């Protein structure tokens, strides 16, 4: 995005840039092909950590050519990917902003997980992005078609591509995503082939790669923090650290959209409060018995929904307790 000049001198003009990486309290802003070190204005700390910029955000910042520039505000987000913070149960972790597509990168070896792909898809849909499952290392798999059909069965919202970055298989299918101005977020386990994929698309080694362990097909954490990379063709790629597990909270809408067929079936049950157990006229049971709906997929849907409800309730309870404690401390001057 172009700079916005003000009445200030050229040395301290206001500009619009994009957050490329975050390291503790230090930020790197991508601006006109350059990486600008920056800090946050004090108002962010007064508003709380939820107001902090994250990778992918467009921000207004005051350029300082002699030191750290100053981030003054965050522009409105088009999409937002978030998950429960594993270290802080009552807090949501904002991961990536303004991603158009989420590439869910999963290799066709022991790393493959139907459950994990469904989780990523729900989070992408909840955040407003399009989930795209990239099944890598297809050259090592003897039954690629089966995996494609299985992932396609997760949701009609998810797109699926099987590729081999090393041999160039399937890469032509991805070209439509790599249009100037597009932002692609990479998510998946370590060793799934995220870095190899981007290097193959870019035609140069812009991301470090590492081999997987032969004994368990798991990879090393090549990427240790989220970073935004601008390719020569104007495409933005956001790489994320490998995650073998990802929790669910505040994602019920995403889950319902991912499993929209099940949500629609539930509306067809005779009773509005049907538990899909022994009640007569249950559309879910009828669909499972007829083969229209697989029992495994329905169990996954219920499992993700229950996890989301449980984590959200816990988050609200801890948040309520935290506010009460702060109110008590303020009243008794304990700070």
Primary descriptors:
335 residues, OB fold (Dihydrolipoamide Acetyltransferase, E2P), Ribonucleotide Reductase Protein R1, domain 1, 6-stranded mixed beta sheet, 13 strands, globular
Q: Tell me the number of structural domains.
A: 3
The helix/strand class is alpha/beta
In terms of quaternary structure, the protein is single chain
> What order do the helices and strands follow?
EEEHEEEEEHEHEEHEEHHHH
Count the helices. How many? 8
The major β-sheet equals: 6 strands, mixed
The average pLDDT score comes to 83
User: Which architecture name of the largest domain does CATH use?
Assistant: 3-Layer(aba) Sandwich
Given this structure, which CATH class of the largest domain is correct?
Alpha Beta
Strand fraction equals 15-25%
Count of β-strands: 13
Q: Radius of gyration over alpha carbons?
A: 22 Å
Shape: globular
Question: Helical content, roughly?
Answer: 25-40%
Return the CATH topology of the largest domain: Rossmann fold
